[in-house]
Amino acid sequence: MKDKWIKLDNAAKIFPASVSGPDTKVFRFAAELYEPVAPEILQEAVSESAEVFDVYNYVLKRGLFWYYFEKSDLRPVVKEEYKPLCAPIYSTDRKKLLYEVTYYKNRINLEIFHALSDGTGAMKFLECIITKYLSKAHKIKEPELDYDASNHEKEDDSFYRYYDENKNIRKNKVKHRKAYKAVGGMRFSDDRISVITGIADLKATLNEAHKNNTTLTGYLSAVLFSAIGETMPRRVKKQPVVLTIPINLRKHFPSGSARNFFSTVNIEYNFKKFPNDLQSIINTVTSDLKKALSKESLEELIARYSSVENNIFARIAPLSMKDVALRIAHDYRMLETSATLSNIGVASIPEELSEFVKSFDISCATKKLQVCAASFKNSLSLSFTSPYDDFDIQKNFFRKLTENGIHVEIYSNAETLK
Question: Full-prediction pTM beyond 0.90?
Answer without folding.
Answer: yes
